[in-house]
């Protein structure tokens, strides 16, 4: 089992940047494919970005491509989401998620593809 804790959220003006972190504890971090999802008020939780166990494969939702970058440092048991050129529509609670026990290239864009979730961190982008 793995425990996930997000940090780095906050209030930023449109066009600004934030870096979210997801710290993991428990089983070896390299055993997990990881992802970021987000949920805006009154909306369903949506896929943002995913990264394979080694970090060699990444995927993004169309709405964030070119602005957000997912990465991981397996030695530090931490995943990151660098968020640049933020827009008001990026306002949401951001969640990290982990999936264990799959092939090294595995990742998913679906909530059902992940076994463990953090509590979330709020990102608010003002116009």
Describe the model.
With 127 residues, this protein is mainly beta. It is 0% helix and 52% strand. The strands form 2 sheets. Strands 2, 4, 5, 6, 9, 10 and 11 form a 7-stranded mixed β-sheet that branches. A 4-stranded antiparallel β-sheet has the order 1-3-8-7, with no helix packed on it. The radius of gyration is 14 Å and the shape is globular. The mean pLDDT is 96.
End-to-end gap: 40 Å
- Judged by helices, strands and strand pairing, the structural class is mainly beta
Total number of strands: 11
Number of helices: 0
Strand and helix order: EEEEEEEEEEE
* Helix content bin: under 10%
- Our Rg estimate from Cα atoms comes to 14 Å
What amount of the residues lies in strands?
Answer: over 45%
Low-pLDDT parts are: none
- What is the makeup of the main sheet? 7 strands, mixed
Basic shape: globular
Mean pLDDT, all residues: 96
Features:
11 strands, seven-stranded mixed sheet, four-stranded antiparallel sheet, 0% helix, 127 residues, globular, single chain, mainly beta
């Amino acid at each position: 089992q793995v425990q996930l804790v997000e940090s780095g959220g906050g209030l930023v003006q449109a066009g600004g940047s934030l870096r979210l972190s997801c710290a993991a504890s428990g089983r070896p971090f390299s055993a997990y494919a990881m992802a970021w999802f987000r949920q805006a008020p009154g909306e369903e939780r949506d896929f943002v970005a995913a990264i394979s166990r080694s970090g060699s494969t990444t995927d993004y939702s169309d709405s964030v491509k070119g602005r957000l970058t997912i990465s991981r440092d397996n030695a530090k048991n931490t995943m990151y989401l660098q968020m640049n050129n933020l827009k008001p529509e990026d306002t949401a609670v951001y969640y990290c998620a982990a999936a264990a026990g799959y092939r090294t290239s595995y990742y998913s864009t679906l909530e059902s593809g992940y076994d463990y979730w953090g509590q979330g961190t709020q990102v608010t982008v003002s116009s």
